[in-house]
User: Fold this.
Amino acid sequence: MPLDDLPLPFLRVVAVLFGLAWGSFATVAIARIPEGQSVVVPGSRCDACGAPIPAWKNVPVLAWILLRGRASCCGAPIPVRVPVVEALGGAMAYLAFTRATEGGVTPAHLALAALTFAAALTAVVLTFIDLDYLYLPDGGVLTLAAIGVLSLPLRAVPWQEAAIGAVAGYAVVYVPFIWLYERLRGFPGMGLGDAKLLAAIGLWFGWIGALFALVLAAVQGTIVALCTFVAAGRIAEPEAVVREREELRAMAAAGDEEAKEALRLDPLADEPEEGLRHARIAFGPFLCVAFLEWLFAEEWILAWLMPR
Ligand SMILES: [Zn+2]
Assistant:
């Protein structure tokens, strides 16, 4: 089938519609993966009352606008995040398609577009899960790494470069921020999830890209943390983290040995001390944003940082 013959604007619209539909799937993944639920069954349900959502009320972005942000079954508010994530799905598909097909619309370019989109959407899902739960699920990080490896030949990246990037990405987080930090301050400054995520980013972009991603994430994370602290006076823990801790404590108080053990091992078992220095800030979202920036705008970032 000669896809080249189809007008490019038409193909872009198809890509965006495809992205919106997957964006809708991403909202389900963000809500269900951390709770250990299946992302496939049951079908879409209202978060508030559990009523199944008919397909037409599940149309990405549009349904939220038409329903004015309220569930039609029980009137519960639907968070703005839902249409935002759906729209992000559309935007990622547009960017992935446009970027991957710069050299033409061939099967290889389309395969690269699909893989780029899958990686970008995975980064979006990881961002919101880490924001909510302060943890990066291994499955998501592994997905990102696997897509990176699969797309190596399409991106003309030698596997040696990817392997060095993965090791460098892991080490540059693990050695200073986990190993050394723990020896100096008694607790790790970052999670193992961050090290694994930067290893996946190194697989994608090699060690130079991994280092840039770390620097971009650190700079942007610091700016956001300072702005939040100035605006709100404090950086609050995510609700789910507080809720999970209370549940574990109640179970431990009732004599549950497993809960006691979980509390002993959990780095989030105690409330953080007051102040910016002790604030618990998820770093994964900033790494994910840096990944997306490097994925879609590598040349611009390099040209901006190193003008000729
Ligand atoms: Zn409902």
About this structure: Residues 1-133 form one domain. The first helix runs from residue 8 to 32. The two ends are 43 Å apart (CA to CA).
